[in-house]
Specification:
The chain is of the alpha/beta class. It folds into 2 domains: 33-88; 96-135 and 146-290, Ribonuclease H-like superfamily/Ribonuclease H (Nucleotidyltransferase, domain 5), CATH 3.30.420.10. It has 12 helices and 6 strands. Strands 1, 2, 3, 4, 5 and 6 form a 6-stranded mixed β-sheet that branches. Helix 3 (54-63) crosses helix 4 (71-80). It is elongated. It starts with 5 loop residues before the first helix and ends in an 8-residue tail after the last helix. 18% of the residues are buried.
Length: 298
């Protein structure tokens, strides 16, 4: 029942009868079959073939003339070297053309005054996402529906304040997007910026649709051109991240509780918080240029 071999139990009992302890005798611990070159080879396999299992790496070591070891030995060797098996984080798929356009946009806007820019975005908040780590002696389980409900959030931030927050269900098409702009953007931003403002939005289809462009012209809304696949350049994404982390820690998983918490976070946004988000734009631009248009960590 204990999983300990019978011979091991017999040996321990014999040592106790002889008046000895159950500790290992000095020098009795087994020696590793792997030498430093074998360990380096295992790390190289992990770097060049990150999807391989421990068993595949163990077989490859043997094929290269190394010792035959158990996959758990490979796993322990990689853990000791600092390797972990990660679930890849989803990031924008940037082509060389995307990178070129990102650098071009950053160079054009390097010296821009961001004080009259309204950064907007919609984001989907998925219920029952298991993104919060929990303590336990074994991996905890959390019952989760196959298709959990979600909320759509739209909002805008600027150095002078925020737009009205829109919380809805379902997807956004061009007509609905125009309704959101009319309801949540025009009145607040016209009051905060009587001399005019510039709207930032990404290149989603509802944003660039012909009818939406006509709406912008009819309402005299100036739009800031935006590079493709660039959520990392938009400071409002950091705010969505803050919201999602706080929501994930809520014990109550109901739309009412989530809506209340979302509104609370939005209404409690301070001038200092807005400044910290928006005044990061020069650093974001410099990082993007330094990365030759690649994704930046911000």
């Amino acid at each position: 029942m204990s999983g300990i071999p019978l011979r091991t139990c017999q040996r321990i009992c014999a040592r106790i009868r002889q008046g000895e302890g159950i500790e290992r005798r000095p020098g009795s611990r087994g020696h590793s079959k792997l030498n430093p070159n074998d360990r380096r080879r295992i790390q190289q396999f992990a770097r060049h073939h990150p999807k391989w299992s421990s068993l595949q790496i163990a077989k490859a070591v043997v094929q290269r003339g190394g010792p035959r070891v158990h996959p758990s030995t490979v796993w322990r060797t990689l853990r000791t070297a600092g390797f972990l098996k990660w679930m890849p984080k989803v990031t924008p798929m940037l082509t060389e053309e995307h990178k070129r356009k990102r650098v071009e946009w950053c160079l054009q806007n390097r010296d821009r005054d961001w004080s009259n820019i309204v950064f907007t975005e919609e984001s989907y908040f998925q219920f029952y996402q298991n993104v919060v780590l929990e303590w336990g002696k074994k991996r905890p389980q959390k019952p989760t529906p196959k298709y959990g409900p979600r909320l759509m959030i739209w909002g805008g931030i600027s150095l002078r304040g925020t737009t009205i927050l829109k919380i809805a269900r379902g997807s956004v098409d061009a007509a609905y997007y125009q309704e959101i702009l009319g309801e949540c953007l025009l009145e607040t931003m016209s009051t905060l910026y009587p001399d005019g403002y510039i709207l930032q939005q990404d290149n989603a289809r509802p944003h660039t649709a012909k009818k939406t462009q006509e709406w912008f012209r009819d309402h005299s809304v100036q739009v800031l051109p935006w590079p493709p696949c660039s959520p990392d350049l938009n400071p409002i994404e950091n705010l969505w991240g803050v919201m999602k982390r706080r929501l994930a820690k809520l014990e109550e998983r109901s739309s009412e509780a989530w809506e209340d918490e979302i509104k609370k976070i939005w209404n409690e946004l301070s001038t200092h918080s807005l400044e910290s988000f928006i005044k990061s734009m020069p650093q974001r631009i410099e990082k993007c240029i330094a990365a030759n248009g690649g994704k930046i960590k911000y």
